[in-house]
Design a protein that fits this description.
alpha/beta, Rossmann fold, four-stranded parallel β-sheet, globular
Length: 185
């Protein structure tokens, strides 16, 4: 039985691991927040709890490693940028397994938003098909948040396979919660 205390971070790599050319830069930023000694942001990174694979690894090896990482996760942060919807391989695989097999909630964080998200359904044009389908059929537990450190920190600490976000696939924080995070708008 896996010890499920990690956060699995998924993002569209756009065929590269070069920051600035894909959403990997947001993942790297989350890691930097966590490594900063005077910062409260903590990321128990599921990717660091499993054996590393190289970008050149065989697809089957990568799939096995991703399954191991998902099995060790209490939640998933899905970084959603302008190209996430166009990912047709790994992001859909990660969403499908997170929801269908491992039953972990998704913290959908939007890099183009810095204001409170109050109507997740209005963001459907950003969703990969795998996420859209699971939200619409009620199998995904999702909270939708802007890519802001304080909000992510709260969501990662609060929501897990044992404590999913409210609202089924359309969860969002209240205005009062956003005020407590120092975000208004």
């Amino acid at each position: 039985m896996a010890y499920r205390n990690g956060t699995y971070v998924a993002f569209h790599a756009n065929g590269t691991n070069i920051p600035g050319q894909s959403d990997i830069k947001y993942y790297q930023l989350m890691r930097a927040w966590s490594f900063k000694p005077d910062d409260e942001f903590t990321l128990v990174n599921s990717h660091e709890k499993a054996s590393a694979v190289r970008d050149t690894s065989q697809a089957a090896t990568l799939r096995r490693s991703l399954h191991e990482r998902l099995a060790n996760s209490k939640n998933m942060v899905l970084i959603i940028g302008g190209t996430t919807k166009s990912d047709t391989d790994w992001v859909p695989f990660e969403i499908e397994n997170a929801v269908d097999k491992y039953k972990i909630p998704i913290i959908a964080t939007y890099v183009d938003y810095d204001k409170p998200i109050r109507n997740p359904a209005a963001l459907v044009s950003y969703w990969p098909e795998a996420l859209k389908r699971r939200i619409e059929n009620g199998t995904a537990n999702v909270i939708h948040v802007p890519f802001k450190k304080t909000v992510l920190m709260n969501a990662m600490g609060q929501f897990s396979h044992n404590n999913p976000p409210p609202g089924k696939g359309y969860g969002y924080y209240s205005d009062e919660a956003y005020k407590s995070f120092g975000i208004e708008g």
